[in-house]
Amino acid sequence: MPDLKSAAPSAALAETSRYDILFEPVAIGPVVARNRFYQVPHCNGMGYRDPTALAHMRGVKAEGGWAVVCTEQVEFHHSSDITPFIELRLWDDRDIPALARMVDNIHEHGSLAGIELAYNGMNGPNLYSREVPMGPSHLPVATFTYDPVQARRMDKDDIRNLRKWHLAAVRRAKAAGFDLVYVYAAHALGFLHHFLSRRYNDRTDEYGGSLENRTRLLREIIMETKDAVGDTCAVPCRISVDELLGEEGLYREEVEDMIGLMADLPDLWDVTLAGWENDSRTSRFGEEGEQEPFISGIRRLTAKPVVGVGRYTSPDRMVSLVKRGILDMIGCARPSIADPFLPNKIREGRLEDIRECIGCNICVSGDFTQSPIRCTQNPTMAEEWRKGWHPERIRARTSEKPVLIVGAGPAGLEAAQALGKRGYEVSLAEAGTELGGRVAKEARLPGLSAWGRVAEYRKGQLHKLPNVSVYFDSRLDAETILGFEAPRIVIATGATWRSDGVGHRHTRPIPIAADAKIFSPTDILNGRLPVSGPVVVWDDDHYYMAGVIAELLAAKGLDVSYVTPASEASTWTRATMEQHFIQKRLLEKGVHIATFRSLDAIAADTARTSCVFTGRIEEMEAASVVLVTGRLPEERLYLDLLARRDDWADAGIENVTAIGDALAPATIAHAVYAGRRYAEELDEPPLPEGALPFRREIAELTP
């Protein structure tokens, strides 16, 4: 295999100089960022529950070269909590030490620490505090889950109190050591955005009506914040330039006028789209730089630096943004999660080593499921402190024993490259002629091409590792493996989608006629598609697969009905903020969506469905049926090897381990994590009985 590490140093230096503009320092008020890489505030599912894990995660980003590293939104008063989401809190002085720990980790690597103070207002149902929410108007709370709670209209005393609470939080943030203290008015996720937008603000006093009045509170709070921090901290303002609702909400021209009124008041403008689901669209529904048309005019309105996001992974695109005067700093959330060392890799000319974000939003799902953030590309995300994992470093091998990995899907590829970097001799056997397994095939489906980066990054890393050998067309059986003389065997053979209807709804196979035309996602991924309609796509998986298949078949001109026992298409993708985009796309493609229906039996040309509530039966025409249900691990080889455990000693085998989908099918992120975990834990001593495989923090009992 070619050794990419042998590339001429002059080539790397030339590549680096091409991007020198990205490493120029930028003054932000009284502080200076060492380069133009700016990790904008982003949530992570850890917040006040896992503050040390969170502090280490942010610290690793600073180590990776991000000049500014920010928190997520930080609640600053108990009268507005965003439960069930787990964010940071700065309700009183007792919260300062946890935040200071994060600041220390960021400062350790020479980066600036930013805090995004947030009062959620009409977004906070206050399920924890049980306080009555407040906003500019009497309106139901604007939450993701339609909570049966209303916010009351704030009076003048409420506004004065809110300004006082914000000011107290600013002083606490300064005491914690932050270098940037945000005034947050973006994403329709806080009180300042609500005051700016006519959609939420129907006031007739000096805080409502005209553009000047609706920006009054924002101007007041920016000025108070600047006075409070003095000349030691910068004060950025984060604002959404468009709600994508036309004149029913905030729109670009109006927000540009607002920014014009306050042009040089904050020290930096952080410009976004609203809501969050528009600002952080999945790659299936938004390409890199999709926000550019909305933010391209902001720079001419102010003498202060401007930062914006766009899921930027291309260094050339970043340079273009700066040279064209669109942005002064390259804002990233998801790309900084996929590769915390992205800036350093660009600076060092190691572009091929960048783990590019695939835009799947599995990171976002951590926030929506109140669990530590995860990443499909970066399995070390949120494990920096919990497990001691690092995205760029892994300890050297502790034995000379080689490893055989069977299967080159996401789990096998990650295990191979991580073990290779540890120094182990690795043989990677792939039954086919292509690396990547499921991701290579799924990347060919509509809108998922970026997912191919999961395989491409790992293939690139393998090419640099002379101690990893890849074998194609190697469909191994137990007898062959017993003769391979590898002490450690890893089975990463993936999984196959079921064709019998077993999934969430049915835990036993459903009746299917022998002459019925049945397809599974495995068939679709292998190129076997229905050729005539009507086609019924049965979604009992509830993630992205059924929606993508329905879209694919509809684009081929087939009459498609999408049937699901859930209330909507691809319902779990609410956690990745794309469900409404999926449903819209399917409807636009002419797909009929039948919700709350159970697919119970399939005949030659019909499918029998029933209402999940009443049991009322309906027959649907179905020349073909695609069953998107459960999966079965490809475990035959694993079970065969276990059955021959008595032969292991003679064959020199010490252990056989199934990982990823071969053990239990799940997301691609789960598979990549499984590969990394195997590599990290190989040759580690067994944990003591009852010990956790990760660190956790436990709340201290008060007296």
What's the short version?
This protein has 703 residues and is an alpha/beta fold. The protein is built from 24 helices and 29 strands. The chain has an eight-stranded parallel barrel with strand order 3-4-6-10-11-12-13-14, surrounded by five helices. A five-stranded parallel β-sheet has the order 17-16-15-18-29, sandwiched between helices. Strands 20-27-21-22-23 form a five-stranded parallel β-sheet.
Could you explain how this protein is built, in words?
The chain has 703 residues and is of the alpha/beta class. It is built from 24 helices and 29 strands. Strands 3-4-6-10-11-12-13-14 form an eight-stranded parallel β-barrel, surrounded by five helices. It has a five-stranded parallel sheet with strand order 17-16-15-18-29, with helices on both faces. Strands 20-27-21-22-23 form a five-stranded parallel sheet. Strand 11, helix 8 (252-261) and strand 12 form a beta-alpha-beta unit. It is globular, with a radius of gyration of 27 Å. The model is unreliable at 1-10 (pLDDT under 50).
Structural class by SSE content: alpha/beta
Radius of gyration: 27 Å
Strand content: 15-25%
Distance between the termini: 63 Å
Biggest sheet record? 8 strands, parallel, barrel
Helix content: 25-40%
Topology of this protein?
Elements: H1 9-18, E1 26-28, E2 31-33, E3 37-39, H2 51-63, E4 68-75, E5 88-89, H3 96-107, E6 112-118, E7 134-135, E8 139-140, E9 150-153, H4 156-176, E10 180-185, H5 191-196, H6 211-214, H7 216-229, E11 236-240, H8 252-261, E12 268-272, H9 276-279, H10 292-295, E13 306-308, H11 315-323, E14 329-332, H12 334-338, H13 342-347, H14 362-368, E15 403-406, H15 410-422, E16 426-429, H16 438-442, H17 453-463, E17 468-471, H18 478-482, E18 488-491, E19 495-497, E20 518-519, H19 521-525, E21 535-539, H20 545-555, E22 560-563, H21 579-588, E23 592-594, E24 597-602, E25 606-611, E26 617-621, E27 624-628, E28 631-633, H22 636-643, H23 648-651, E29 655-658, H24 668-681
Helix pairs in contact: 2-3, 3-4, 4-7, 15-17, 15-24, 20-21
